[in-house]
């Protein structure tokens, strides 16, 4: 099937032809839900410690380890998840990681001792790094260069806003988590009280994100990178149909071999984009660090 203009389309043009619509908004919403799950993983321990301190007989050393162990898990698995993403694609590893994160949070709500909770939190960090880094990259394939900047900015705003919201509500949350009710499970082996319910609730965003990710498509950029051009075109056609409401066969780029690798941006534009990204990341880092310092003085 030939198109009217025989000019070969690069990846940027192919993406722009799909439009920016319902598929992109739903993908962004799913990523935002996943971001809430990430924040619960990173900051949730700080909120549960005042209530869990007596329940698990935590010392100052134990509380420090619980706050740090998730970062140890993230560092230990970064290269592994990079290999998995480049081998098996983007969508499936992200979906699996979201699901595992939810399961681990559910398990941590039943932790009978400090050591069990420590191991589970390490495993949470081990799987956390995959969706926390790859979900933005997964969104970018479905966006042009202009809309990709919007996606990145929206993630940064969501990240910093959630940090500030959690920090400002820390005192009220601690009072809520110290409510006196509880349930005895397994003949009293586990006392399921308010902080455990909080950890259970923290699993819901990741579980919902995992469910929603099953409805999305694999990144066509990854499919083309491994030589599956026809499947990449099928993905682009599906996104085109969802965004525009038109028949998939009317997608202008009809030949899989007309979609090439992304064309390189000019050096000035690329440098400007990298400086902008570095600035946003710096602001997000400062916000996260200030949030952690705030919690440490509570």
Search tags:
Major facilitator superfamily (MFS) profile domain-containing protein; 298 residues; mainly alpha; transmembrane transporter activity; 2 strands; Growth Hormone, Chain: A
At CATH level 3, the topology is Growth Hormone, Chain: A
Q: Which word captures the global form?
A: elongated
CATH superfamily: MFS general substrate transporter like domains
User: Rounded to an integer, what's the Rg over CA atoms?
Assistant: 22 Å
Query: Can you tell me the residue ranges where pLDDT is under 50 for at least 5 consecutive residues?
Result: 1-8, 254-267, 291-298
Helix content: over 70%
How many structural domains? 1
Elements, N to C (H/E)? HHHHHHHEEHHHH
For the secondary structure, the number of strands is: 2
- Strand composition percent: under 5%
Q: What class do helices, strands and sheet pairing give?
A: mainly alpha
Tally of helical runs: 11
CATH class equals: Mainly Alpha
Organism: Timema poppense
Pfam families: MFS_1 (PF07690), Sugar_tr (PF00083)
Protein name: Major facilitator superfamily (MFS) profile domain-containing protein
Main location: membrane
